[in-house]
């Protein structure tokens, strides 16, 4: 399943070197990941420190081109792999102004029980939705 969101580049996203700071790319991926969980996976109500929800275990970003204001980026997220208690999401960020991919990335998420501080298995229902 592939899912995407559009994110306008803000003037404040740029750094002293005149391009979007590298940390913003991670935030764009986070925005797409949360939207994917809520809109595509229909998983809502993650409360900080309560219940079961995803926790970020790893993030990788490969930067291809700098982005500058004004622009809008499209952040596509797709499931690369689903394991027993973890999943790998792949991201592709495309600049509308450049009509080019500006970065690719991956994150590893673990389904985590915040009360017990332990990972938990991904249910078959959630696995089917992730792979659907």
Description of the structure:
The chain has 132 residues and is α+β, with helices and mostly antiparallel strands. It has a single domain, classed as Thiol Ester Dehydrase, Chain A, CATH 3.10.129. The protein is built from two helices and six strands, in the order βαβββββα. It has helices at 22-40, 124-131; strands at 2-8, 52-63, 72-82, 86-95, 100-113, 118-119. Strands 1, 2, 3, 4, 5 and 6 form a six-stranded antiparallel sheet that branches. A hairpin with a 3-residue loop joins β3 (72-82) and β4. The longest helix is centred in the first third of the chain and has 19 residues, at 22-40. The radius of gyration is 16 Å and the shape is elongated. It starts with a strand and ends with a helix.
What is the radius of gyration computed over CA atoms, rounded to a whole number of angstroms?
A: 16 Å
Could you name the CATH class? Alpha Beta
Oligomer: single chain
Stated plainly, the CATH topology is called Thiol Ester Dehydrase, Chain A
So, CATH architecture? Roll
Which H/E pattern describes the elements? EHEEEEEH
The low-pLDDT segments are none
Structural domains: how many? 1
Overall spatial form? elongated
Number of helical segments? 2
| Helical residue percent band | 10-25%
User: Could you tell me the strand content as a percent range?
Assistant: 35-45%
Quickly give the structural class: alpha+beta
The CATH homologous superfamily corresponds to Hotdog Thioesterase
Mean pLDDT over the residues:
92
The largest pleated sheet is described as:
6 strands, antiparallel
End-to-end gap = 6 Å
Number of strands: 6
């Amino acid at each position: 399943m592939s899912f995407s969101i559009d994110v306008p580049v803000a003037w404040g996203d740029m750094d002293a070197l005149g391009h979007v700071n590298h940390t913003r790319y991670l935030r764009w991926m986070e925005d797409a990941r949360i939207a994917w969980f809520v809109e595509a996976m229909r998983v809502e109500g993650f409360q900080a420190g309560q219940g079961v929800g995803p926790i970020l275990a790893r993030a990788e970003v490969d930067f291809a081109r700098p982005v500058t204001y004004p622009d809008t980026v499209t952040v596509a997220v797709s499931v690369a792999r689903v394991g027993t208690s973890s999943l790998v999401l792949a991201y592709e960020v495309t600049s509308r102004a450049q009509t080019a991919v500006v970065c690719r990335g991956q994150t590893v998420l673990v389904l985590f029980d915040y009360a017990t501080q332990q990972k938990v298995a991904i249910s078959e229902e959630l696995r089917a939705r992730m792979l659907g």
